[in-house]
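W.,

You were right to be curious about this one. When I first looked at the sequence I had no strong expectations either way, so I just let the prediction run and decided to look at it fresh. Below is the sequence, 416 residues in total, followed by the output.
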Amino acid sequence: MSDTVIRVENLSKKYIIGHQQQERYTALRDVIANKAKVLISPFYNKTSKMLNSQEEFWALKDVSFEIKQGDRVGIIGRNGAGKSTLLKVLSRITEPTEGSIKIKGRVASLLEVGTGFHPELTGRENIYLNGAILGMSKVEIKRKFDEIVDFAEIAKFLDTPVKRYSSGMYVRLAFAVAAHLEPEILVVDEVLAVGDAQFQKKCLGKMQEVSTQGRTIIFVSHNSSAIANLCDRGLFLEKGNLKANTTSIQALSLYTSELNKFNFVSQTKIDSPSIWKVEIDQNALEKGDLCVKVHFTSPWVLDPPLVGIVVYSIHGIPLFGTNTWLDPDFKPQCLKSGIATLLVKNLPLHSGSYKLSIWLGEKNQNYDSKLDAIAFDFISLDVLPQGLSPDFIGPFKIYGQWHLAPIMENINIVKG
């Protein structure tokens, strides 16, 4: 495999989903009657089984890729795309239905809260247990023990059974163990979202440090900025299929493009001026610009139509807004229906997820508004140093002027 540490060939994973046909509602008398039928008629069980059906669900289908030593791979996709299933197969938690996987090196996985630790054992005991599972000697674990405890910040509860830990404490310890016990391959799922912002920043910094040591990282997250700044490669999954195996930036762009296929389309009956569709130009986003197209229609001619937007962080904090009135070069037209296009050049935002709201009016009258009309991922063309996520320094790219001057050497500093 040379420097290839993971080789996946034609990987598929199938689950059997059971469906039970039910009546519109079941009264107590129906439950009693059904129980009686089971006792009286040996053929009732056969009849009832006919009401049940089974369906094959392929969580992964014919997935193939290679990961080399030192790669930092982000796996992205919508909910249900197969990301977690892929990680479970790579971590040997579940067996593939078809295909093969070859892995070279120790794998440490952090997939979901509650896995990997024995709830009855203390934090101290679980550190040694996990190290042993990874194939490390007691001497190796002792050498890293203090670093793990300091990182997890659980020294006070080290000899408490982990079943009494909060979810935050649990995740802190689990990540600390997975990252510090020197596995060749570190697999991390969206579980980091359980921690607070400071903990997430700490984890991203640690993963960056781990990657510089030549170890491989596989990271699943819906935080596009974290993927963009931590990972150099991206695997984009859609409905169990591998849609793209490319750079993290290109994979995120393709993912955003897929999301924008499901743009907002209003189903409201048109009896007043209304916004019926909102689009975001993905090509413009890739160039660092924001281009929004607002489709509207009206039973009467709008004189003129007025359109505005407000851009929010993914958490709902308003960042900026603009409208047709504020553009000195805007040329108003009287229209019954049309497309209003907004272009913001050099969008002054860091990489991250955002959403926007739209409103439509005429003179001093507001006719229609769509809160959270559409969401988008923006990948800044600037990459932050040290691979830190820009989520922790705010949404805007603001560059100030700094000046540094030496202090005079003959000045005596007197401590009070």
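Here's what jumped out at me. The chain has two domains: 58-258, 263-382+387-392. And, maybe more interesting for your project: The first strand starts at residue 4 and ends at 20.

Coffee later to discuss?

I.
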